[in-house]
Amino acid sequence: MNALIQAGCEVLLGGKADLNATGAFFPPTLLFCPQPDETPAVHAIEAFARLPP
């Protein structure tokens, strides 16, 4: 999520997570990207867990 924020996205809802907690949990979060066509990161970063090969 930090990479998306650095790319220009804004957190509209949620985004507050305890990054020191054990496990792989992140609360529901809504991001807004004002210029998605000019922001390659929003298309390159996988928002959900990647599936194993």
Distance between the termini: 23 Å
Counted beta strands: 2
* Sequence of strands across the biggest β-sheet: 1-2
Residue-averaged pLDDT, rounded? 81
Largest sheet at a glance? 2 strands, antiparallel
Shape: globular
Helix content: 10-25%
H/E element order: HEEH
Class inferred from helices and paired strands: alpha+beta
Low-pLDDT parts are: none
Count of domain modules? 1
Tell me the radius of gyration. 12 Å
Question: Which band does the percent of strand residues land in?
Answer: 5-15%
Number of helices: 2
What does this structure look like?
The chain is α+β, with helices and mostly antiparallel strands and 53 residues long. The chain has one domain (1-20, 27-53). 17% of the residues lie in helices and 13% in strands. It contains two helices and two strands. The protein has helices spanning 2-6, 41-44, and strands at 10-13, 30-32. Strands 1-2 form a two-stranded antiparallel sheet. The two termini are 23 Å apart. The relative contact order is 0.29. The model has no long low-confidence stretch (mean pLDDT 81).
Which helices and strands occur, and which strands form pairs?
Elements lengths: L1 H5 L3 E4 L16 E3 L8 H4 L9
Antiparallel strand pairs: 1-2
Task: State the main characteristics.
Bifunctional aldehyde dehydrogenase/enoyl-CoA hydratase; 13% strand; alpha+beta; two-stranded antiparallel sheet; 2 helices; 53 residues
